[in-house]
Each structure stands twice: as C-alpha cells, then as structure tokens.
Amino acid sequence: MIAPNPNLPCRTAELYYYDFLFGESPEPIPEPIIEHIEQCQYCQEQINQLKKALLRTEGIKSQQNQENPAAVTEMLKIHFAYIGKKVTCKMVRPFLPGMLDPALEIRIPTPITAHLDNCRQCSEDLELIRKLSLERKQLCRLSQLFADKAGQDNVSCSQARAAIFTVVLMYSRQADKDILKHLCICPDCRRALYEYRDDFRNELLSDNRVQPDFPCENVSLADIFDYVVPYGFDPANDQYAKFRESLISHVRVCPTCLNKMQELHWIIFNIIERSESGVVTVYNIDESAKTQAASESDELYSGFPTKVSVVNRDDEVKDEQAGSTPDFGDALKQRVSERKLKPLIKTAIAAAAIILIGFALLLNIPTAKAITIEGIYKAIEKVQNVHISSFVPDEKEPIQEMWISRTLNTYMSKTGNELVLWDIPNRTRKTKHLDTSVTDTTQLSEDKINVIRTEMSGSLGLMPFYDISEIPANAEWSRAGRTGLEVEEGTEVYDLSWSDKAYDGSIVFWKWRFFVAAEINLPKRIEQYKWLAESVESTVETIMVVEYLSDSELQKMIKEFFP
C-alpha cells in the first residue's frame, strides 16, 4: 500500500471520500479536493477500499444500481452522529427494534453497538425483543414508540380511559388511532389498561367459561402485538382486519390468550419504563489503531480504528465531533435526507469511511461458523410462514407447491390443477379446480385437523425426518465440496447422508443436500438424492426451492386463489 504524503491534504480529503464516491452531496466538493483525490494514488486506494466495504456489508449498492442510499446507510449516519458523545440506555433504546430488522443489519462497531457490547441491561432488552419474532412493520412502530415521549399529543387521559373497554375487547375499528397512541405513551393510562384487562381476565376465570377447542399455543406474540401495542396502528385502514376476525373473536374471551397479552404488555412497557443501568459509553475514532485479524487479539474491536470508553454519567467527555445528535423519533417518522443531516453527517460519514476502509481487509478473512443440523432444526421451529416448491430435474414447473402458515393456522397445497386450502380457524377445506375455477367447501373433522396441525409442526417437510431424534445412527452431516456448484454469497452447502434397508432387504442410500442461508440458518434449496449400493453415482430425484414469507405476503397469495 502507498503511504500518504503528509504534505498533501489527504486528511482533509477523507471528509469527502463518501461524496466523491457517490456524488450525493448537496454542496459541491471543493475543486482543490477533487484535483487532489484524482491525482493521489493513496486516496484512490482508500476510496476503492471504502467502496468494497460498503458493497460487502450491503450498506450501499453501486451508484448505477441504486439512486438513493440504502436504509442501512441512513441508519449508519444516525449511529455515527453519536461519535464522541456520552451514550446512555435511553439513547440506545429506540435503536433496539431496528437492529433486529435484516434490512437494517449493521456489521461494524458504532457508538450504539458499542453501548450494547458494554451494557448488559440493553443487550438483554434486545434479546427480549428478538424472542417476540415481530414483523418488520411492528419493529418499526416499536422503535417509534421507544423514541416518543409522554405529553406530546392532544389526547387527554379522560378521553383515553373512556376507550379502554373497547381496546380490551379489541373492537379496534371503534378506536381512534390518536387515543391508541396515548394509551401507549402515557404511563398512567397504559397501567390502567393493564389493570382493566387483568380484571376482565379474572372475571372470565371466575365464570368458568368453557372455550371452544382452539390451538392457543399457536397464537404467537406477533399475532396479538397490534392489540397490545397499538402505537401507530390505524384501525380504520387495517387491510388485514377480516383475516384477524377468527383469531380475535377467540382471544377476547380466552383467559389463556389474554394472559399472553398481559405478558407481552409487561415485556414492552417494562423496557420503556426501565431506569438507566448506569453504563455510559463514549465512542471515538482512533486512526492509529492497527488493522489486524480478529484472531490476533482478544480485544473486542481489534482491527477497527475505534476507541470505546465506559464512563460515569457525570464525567466530563470532550465531544471531538462537531454537530448535535439527531432526534431519533423524527428520523424514523420520515426518511432521513442528506440535507437534513448535513450539519452533522460530514464528520460522521468520514468516521464511518475510516472504519469501513479498515474493515474491508477484515472482510476477506473467513469467519463463517460451521452450520449444525441442530441449528437448522431450531431455526425451522421459529419459521412462521413458508412456501415450498418441489421440482423434478430438468422441469421448469413445480410438481407440487405448499404454503404453510403457523401464524394464520392455514395450509395450502397445489398439485396439478387442484388447489386445496385447509383453514383451521374456520375448520374448513376448500378445493379449487383451476381448470374450471369451481370451488368446493367441506367441514374438517377433528381427526383431520389434528393431522394438518402435525404437518404444520415439526420440520415442515424441510428435513427428511420430522424430529431430530428420528435421525438414524448411521447418518452423517458434512460440509459439501463446492466444486461444480453454483453457490450464492452467504450460502453454505451441507449434506445429510444415511442408508436404510428396502423391503426386499437391499441397501438404499440417501442424501439430502442443503443450500443454507448462513445468516438465518435456514435452507433456501434442498436436493434429494437416492441410489442403490451397486450404483456408481447418486442421482437427484427432487429439488425443493424454499421461500420464507411474512403474514401479509402469504395472505395476499391466499386471497389471489380464494378471493
């Protein structure tokens, strides 16, 4: 690498690397800086390293492929606005839900992640939110709630409390969205809401009401989130209202499900009301840090030009970076633009560039951990909605498709021209003949419902065995060689091989090859092989292509077939 000439303004030019690379600055880059960058081999190399790092972290695609900065880049700008400042739990809290959104994944240390690394309370809150398995829109609304403050609305407590009965019974269409917001941000009103729901639940228990058979264990926290945390929820424009009717009609009179709502209420609003842990972190750029492989040091931030200090709240901290931190709530409520953040992002982006340039070298170091079959089974347990298309080799059209939703309690399959929808909440089976568009509806027996529930649990057909305990003792799990395979970045390939006896006593060999998205530990493609002992080569029999869907995506698919 060519060292910078101290007589040239490389240090000043660093502030403009980002603008020079993407040309998005509303203010022109000074001509002397442009001339220097174009002529300086060191600066050109640094800019190339920055571009590679941004592409690898998926923070930014090329200028040709993406007109505006990606969402993660906008989030990075807000993170780095806290450089040199004392970061507390209250500041970090609004960032927590967004850090669980794959589209906003940040893979480098920032002032916010540094606080999480040093604050046990905040890291535990992050894990609590992770276990809720919320959808992206729900995570976004939760971030906005964490950033909001009581007393910043025009709704009185008396107005809000008059609506509590309606909210408890989940007649959401009768509730005003501003009142719902007040019930979330006002500590006194949300406490009253909790107590009223608790009293209502106790009355149901004392009445010994018998509930119709319903799989309460399948009601997820994400299913009831909108009714426990209705912040930002607009009942009048709820496009999924009719899909919720069956669930809500049960939940509103079920003590078990109401208790689940109380537990969710307790988790969310306890995080909001939690006092400061006392851990205060300060994150600064240390350009003298030496880039090295993480394995060469036990330091948490080895290889990154950063310095993190843990201080007391009353300690004096010199803010080395100019500008003030942005209001996180405002930033979430509208797209953060370059212009609005211009007073503070110049130094923040320059700092990010310095970190990312150093990080570019680390990206070339293999860091992937081995994927275990236990890890895949555990990941499948958390899958909410999946679409599986099965193909035979050399055929473009699937021989069968399956849509399974654990959150909606529905199972749909398509074979040839026949489409079948098993709707457990409504206890019906709908069969549509695609060639005639004729639909037949029949009631489901309890035995059939139990069969469908079994198919919707376990490994969802994504593994050759329903449960990990059923895997035979002679099975072998191994990483597959990549020779001759087309594998996308971030995908690992593993084989599960085993043998068993056929009815005639001959030995049959099996292999399932999994193309696993390492980030989520779930298979995206599965190839099934089968061969006899005397065969020289195995042959692929079936190929499964797997998509993991949100509730809204699956609902849209069902509506297309069964309007």
Give the topology, please.
Elements: H1 10-14, H2 17-22, H3 31-39, H4 41-56, H5 71-80, E1 86-87, H6 89-92, H7 111-118, H8 120-130, H9 136-147, H10 157-162, H11 164-168, H12 177-185, H13 187-207, H14 221-228, H15 241-251, H16 255-273, E2 280-285, E3 306-311, H17 328-333, H18 338-362, H19 373-381, E4 385-391, E5 400-405, E6 410-415, E7 418-423, E8 428-433, E9 438-443, H20 446-456, E10 476-479, E11 491-501, E12 507-517, E13 522-532, E14 539-548, H21 551-561
Antiparallel strand pairs: 1-2, 2-3, 4-5, 4-14, 5-6, 6-7, 7-8, 8-9, 10-11, 11-12, 12-13, 13-14
Sequence of strands across the biggest β-sheet = 9-8-7-6-5-4-14-13-12-11-10
How would you sum up the global shape? Answer: globular
Question: Which regions contain 5 or more consecutive residues with pLDDT less than 50?
Answer: 1-7, 57-69, 289-298, 316-324, 331-345, 358-368
Q: Tally of extended strands?
A: 14
Query: How many distinct domains?
Result: 3
pLDDT averaged residue by residue: 77
The biggest beta sheet reads: 11 strands, antiparallel
Number of helices: 21
The structure class reads alpha+beta
Strand content: 15-25%
- Our Rg estimate from Cα atoms comes to 28 Å
Task: Give your account of this protein's structure.
The chain is α+β, with helices and mostly antiparallel strands. It folds into three domains: 10-122 and 278-362, no CATH class; 152-273, no CATH class; 373-561, outer membrane lipoprotein receptor (LolB), chain A (Clam), CATH 2.50.20. It has 21 helices and 14 strands. The protein has helices at residues 10-14, 17-22, 31-39, 41-56, 71-80, 89-92, 111-118, 120-130, 136-147, 157-162, 164-168, 177-185, 187-207, 221-228, 241-251, 255-273, 328-333, 338-362, 373-381, 446-456, 551-561, and strands spanning 86-87, 280-285, 306-311, 385-391, 400-405, 410-415, 418-423, 428-433, 438-443, 476-479, 491-501, 507-517, 522-532, 539-548. The strands form two sheets. The chain has an eleven-stranded antiparallel beta sheet, with helices on both faces. A three-stranded antiparallel beta sheet has the order 1-2-3. The longest helix has 25 residues, at 338-362. The protein is globular and about 80 Å long. Mean pLDDT is 77; it is low at 1-7, 57-69, 289-298, 316-324, 331-345 and 358-368.
